[in-house]
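Margin note: ligand = dinuclear copper ion.
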Amino acid sequence: MKGRTILVVSVIFGVALLCGYLVAANVNLLPEVASTRGDLMQQLFNFLLGAATVVFVLVEGLLVYSVIRFRRRSGDEGQGAAIHGNTALEVFWTAIPALLVVVIAVYSFRVLSESEAAAEEPMIVEVIGRQFAWEFRYPELGLVSSDLHLPVAEPVRFEITSDDVIHSFWVPNFLAKRDATPGQISEFSVTPNEVGIYPVRCAELCGPGHAAMVSQVIVESPEEFQAWAERMASLPSDPTEAGRLLFGRYGCTGCHVLADAGASGLVGPSLEGIGTRAGSTVAGLDAEAYLRQSILEPNAHLVPTYLENLMPGDFGTRIPQNELDLLVTYLAGR
Ligand code: CUA
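Resulting structure:
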């Protein structure tokens, strides 16, 4: 009888190990991973998933076996044997989980310290969260963009902050997320290792446009990144093209509808046909003056049903005069 029990327990344990291995090797619940820190976390996650599967199958297997093997037979009206503890068994089933927890703690700590370790000479990208758009600044290159471009295989350090309320900078495919808190800079380092386009999201409820606070990270070859940086550093000579580009660069596309600029944001009023409408909206202001004031002082001429302070009020300090002129001219022509 004892031999049979040992055999059954051994079989259940073997099945549990096999299931753990199969789950760890084949089941992936994470998004496609595109960073070195993400690779480390994926390995840790798979290990945890495998270990949890082993424990689950072992415990449930023994439970089911016991329920069947030691059930009450028909005609058996007895009380069952009185069993009073088993020290060896209790030591065993305390020691094994304790050991498992220590292994998980040590492994997790190593992954955490390795993924948070600062790279030697990372490229700095400042991330600024605003209701409801992301802005990325490259201080070494003197660039500002609403899309995040990164060269593949090059370490980058994000310095994250917010201009208004708490946001959370989240790139699911990097397996990385950090709060963007006003008056405070939080950091993390990443080395993207897969070329591709991935979403950037806000992971903190920050107001009515929270769900629209999306951008993208474009991981590209160093040559493509260089070409992009050069394109960004100069504006097209055609004023309409320049205006359209600035409309995207300053994040206007995130909140307004304007087909010409490929914008479909629903947070603010539509700008379709704004050039013809703006002139007749406020007495004494022509279209350009109306648009300029609306960019610099968003609360000056609120469109009915839209909330005050929904649009950032600091464009005056962020957009250089020549770019503001181009933007106003562009919009007046829509
Ligand atoms: Cu920003 Cu949610």
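DSSP finds nine helices and twelve strands in the chain.
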